[in-house]
Design goal:
Elements lengths: L4 E8 L3 H11 L3 E5 L2 E6 L1 H14 L6 E7 L1 H6 L18
Antiparallel strand pairs: 1-3, 1-4, 2-3
Helix pairs in contact: 1-2
């Protein structure tokens, strides 16, 4: 993982309490961009801490959390339709 990477976190959690806890935890790491989707720009140690924190909150037998690492060139080629913007960091720029 480079200095900082763009991480998309998507989750499917049926229990309201658990979903709220995961959402609140993820707010410490990135931007809540859709109902169950966060965009984060993180260093490796932040990414690992975020995964550990989420893992402690969920029941892996019924919940699903996906972490997508997006490289800088892929982020630059990403598109957005509708109102909103991509999460940005000083090391990652959207064109």
């Amino acid at each position: 993982m480079s200095e900082k990477d763009f991480i998309v976190v998507a989750y499917d959690i049926s229990d309201d309490s658990t979903r709220t806890k995961v959402c609140n935890a993820l707010k410490n790491y990135g931007n809540h961009v859709q109902l169950s989707v966060f965009e984060c720009v993180l260093k490796e140690r932040e990414y690992e801490r975020m995964k550990r924190e989420v893992k402690e909150l969920i029941d892996e037998k019924v919940d699903l959390v996906r972490f997508y690492r997006i490289c800088k060139s892929c982020v630059a080629r990403s598109e957005l339709l509708g109102e909103g913007s991509f999460t940005q960091d000083c090391d990652i720029y959207m064109i």
